[in-house]
């Protein structure tokens, strides 16, 4: 998500803990905040849209290449300098021709190698998924795959580990219901020993929502889809994509090989956190279809032109026109007014234009690909560095939004509803603001559940009756304001974006909004582990345990100063209490150090299980320690002063809170999944 230089504490936790989620994963920056215009008479959520899309009309005009170049030359270098970015590429296509392909900055800062849009290989991240979906649809055309069959028909492992059958259609619309799985997906260095089976088979995620009901972007599910392509075609995904997509489209400078062939290796851009900093080893995707593509800007231009031209380019057809149209057609609605997924593409709105897109974020590369089929326009943007305050994310959003503003006719903003009275607006806003929310895209079986405790998503009621939502920002970096225009439907102030809430028995149970609505939303955190009470309780408990430890240590020095001897009675209980208290505080410190250690780009490549096993073992001991503290309180001898006996119960209750957090936040999980 977007960050600022002055992050609130919750955002710092969100950044720290979710660093492993890589958002390449969740490449849906709030800066890219366009959302759909109101849909006319939307159908019910259970109804499939027809598998057709209106073909692009005859060209209504062409983009002037010189004007586009002038626009890009004025915007991109400025954003790069401001954000400390090393290099970037932008390509624009229209009506089957390349309008422009522009390289900026350096692919290798140390060698001062400039970005060449035709040959420099960027890492488009999750845009790679579009090639998985294209492969799936090719096999559907051939009758080898059925979008609505149980995926286990094609697999040699059982997916999900627990839950209902999943179909490829649900995987392509990110409604498989699977929790997130990141461990082993992205590692550093092409020779890293982690492989596809480590990612797909070592641990199969559980299903945390019924398939087909809840958007939840899933890297793992995409990995399974690419594995299905392998099993059905009899080829590695890397080979299948090269033979059936890259070569037919003459995408010469593109590859899914994580160890690049010798002829392509010199063209790979290096990755940077900051353009002024050091470069890092190449990122390896163990399941390449999830985010492992190497591609030049020119290669991505050819992919966009083929898709906009109904699956054909220069006489080479990668799929039938009707299949191509089927891929671009929105599927079933989850919330009727919000963007839908097509079969693999995100449908959204930019400036009133019906857009198809997909983003990608690697450890060091930010990318996005957009198309407006009705205008036969496509734009691809990628940077090879994160930049200051995630400037790479901001750049890709700025380029696209400003491009539409400058080169397409301005369309009027239509209001999505007549509005609601002030009392209703405040009542509904208060209902949303009174809850702590968690993303549907999450890991529920691992310690990453801590994210919902330390960085829940909150809705905030503003004085003017609008609401804001944590993390949802516009291009100016400010939180977007939403005003209710129909019951439980909000529209962005002075914008087209919509935010919609699902209500059950008069209570909000789900909401989403903006361009990410097709891939995830937010659900209430259950009351029994709500941060509204659990987080303060944890901080109080840790304070009490720390105070007890300080008093215990101080007591030793006081007795030594006065040459006093500690009472013999209950000495064993005192030692047990000290050991249990030390264990609990030590566990908290160990987890803090572990989370900090895995937040850096290099740490994500680690496949060493030792540190994680250690902190999980300590978490188990902290639960045992809590029981020991209760035992001390129960068995405290009558000879102990009343303050000490009461204090034993206070410490025991504090220990139980810490143990409760360890259990409910999955810190005692024995699995090594992320």
TrEMBL record:
Signal sequence coordinates: 1-33
EC number: 3.1.1.103
Composition bias, Low complexity: 34-50
Alphabetical keyword list: Hydrolase, Membrane, Signal, Transmembrane, Transmembrane helix
Single annotated GO MF: hydrolase activity
Keyword hit for Ubl conjugation: no
Annotated Beta-lactamase-related domain residues: 73-394
Transmembrane regions listed in the UniProt entry: 533-554, 575-594, 614-634, 646-668
Biased composition (Polar residues): 51-60
Sequence segments annotated as region (Disordered): 34-60
InterPro entries named in the record: AmpC-like, Beta-lactam-related, Beta-lactam/transpept-like
PANTHER family assigned to the protein according to its UniProt record, in alphabetical order: BETA-LACTAMASE-RELATED DOMAIN-CONTAINING PROTEIN, D-ALANYL-D-ALANINE-CARBOXYPEPTIDASE/ENDOPEPTIDASE AMPH
Official protein name in the record: Serine hydrolase domain-containing protein
Organismal lineage: Bacteria, Pseudomonadati, Pseudomonadota, Gammaproteobacteria, Lysobacterales
